[in-house]
Amino acid sequence: MSKKRIALIFSSLAGLFLLCACIFWCFFQNEDHRFSTFASSFFRQELSGNTLNLHYTLKDPSAFDMEDLPVSLGTYNSDAQGLCVSLENMLCQMDGFDRSRLSSDNRLTYDILYDSLSASLKTAPFLLYEEPLSPLTGMQSQLPILLSEYPFYDRQDVKDYLTLLTQVPDYFTSILAFEKEKADAGLLLPSFCIDTLAEECRAFRNTGDDCYLYDAFESRLEDLHLSEKEQCSVLEQHRQAMEESVFPAYSMLADGMSALKAKAVNEKGLSGLPKGKEYYQALAAAETGSFRSVSELKELTVRQMNEDLTGIQKLYQDSEKDASPSPSSDRFRSQGYALADSNPASILTTLAGKLKDDFPSPPSVSVTVKYVQESLEEYISPAFYMIPPIDDARENVIYINRGHMPDDLTLFTTLAHEGYPGHLYQTTYYQATDPHPVRSLLNYGGYTEGWATYAEMLSWYYAPIPKKDAALLQKNSSLILGLYALADIGIHYEGWSLPETVVFFQSYGITDVPVIRDIYERIVADPANYLKYYIGYVEFLELKKDAVRSWGKDFSQKRFHREVLETGPASFDLLRDYLL
């Protein structure tokens, strides 16, 4: 055969190979393109109706084809049937994609989106069971914080913000309409929750000229370089909106809920409602991201608590006569430990420096620590992290509630939970992997709060205290969270009354009845909230055990943490599928 003939054959084969490769590439590219278009459309649709969510999610909406949208706080919807139909349609559309033809990144996004929509479909029939006004975590608590941190990138943002303030009455009116439907269906909050809610709303209303929204607004204007005339004008508009819209809206909400109080027929947990146990099962799965039944969650909790108790007993066997101290024992109190430098910025720097051996390097970002207004400390969570926009995570904010910080060690572990290696680290590391924007809409509280609790538990060993003390305090902290998780299940699934809850906690040495009553009321008001922290944390421990068995000698703490972080928020079923 001539060299020319060989060359021609080779050329033809090469051309055929390139043609097949192009067809193969186009075949897969088309499915990837279709799915990416679908996911992006869903992302835009979900954000377009709520300016607050849009502004917190995107710094530059124009880059995502989301410009000139109406300014709106949205409304609270009670159409469970419509929600079910919408979710079913979404899942039907997703069934139309060939998952096997998607890229690895899109396949992960597909699996997580499908999982999230499926979980939402299970809770959708129970839409009226949801509670937008839970003490500490409801919209009445979150809205002022969200407004105070609303970023001003340009002058239009100021105009939009002022418009949002004028919409607060209509937004609260829609929530009241939702609550009235709940009341008519016999699903209203317990009366003691309504009392707490009304008190919280009136406390905010009574801050008046001292309300932190005034200072927050003025400080955010500084970078816009307004003229003196413009500044005076917007400050007056802001004051007017606060006095004529925001404060009256909070008074209206307090009065409206108080007027409904007579219709509060259930003073216990979800088990006291029709189909309440069925809803709790679906809610627990959605909140924790765990595949386990409620009974299995209880078994998992008891097993971890027994491990912690055994660990505590072993630590005391050699040095104490009493090897079974109760969780409320003075020996577990962190008071008395004073850090050499208790400045939050210094603590965060210390914590970030502890990452290098067991965690992948964090992105370079800034963080500002702010404090909850003193008059509102009673009604706000102990601490929280403000999630930055997905297109610019360089600036981060952590709020600390000093009313819940009795000592330096509590501050240290709280900053680990909210900062490093907790929420701030997990969020900014994950965002740096450039995931599809649609994933920012999906709520996996078991992953995010479980990771932050896992980080908090590790931080006891980072603290500048004796290692034995660190181990005791960490295991006791885990044990107490386990008690709260068991109480959550007991109250909402097994129907515990307050007296039964008192007996439960007293069996573990916690005997202060007013404290137990406060715990009971908080759990009643926010079903499955404690579960997502504790179960999420324990599921990470279980996942790590599985990784040790599966990876063998290839296991390392850094590899485990990196793969969890790069997979991102998901259910624990999916995490197992992708990691092991």
UniProtKB/TrEMBL annotation:
PROSITE patterns: PROKAR_LIPOPROTEIN. Residues 315-334 are annotated as: Disordered. It comes from the Bacteria. InterPro entries: DUF885. Signal peptide: none annotated. PANTHER family: DUF885 DOMAIN-CONTAINING PROTEIN, GLR0591 PROTEIN. This is DUF885 domain-containing protein. It comes from Mordavella massiliensis.
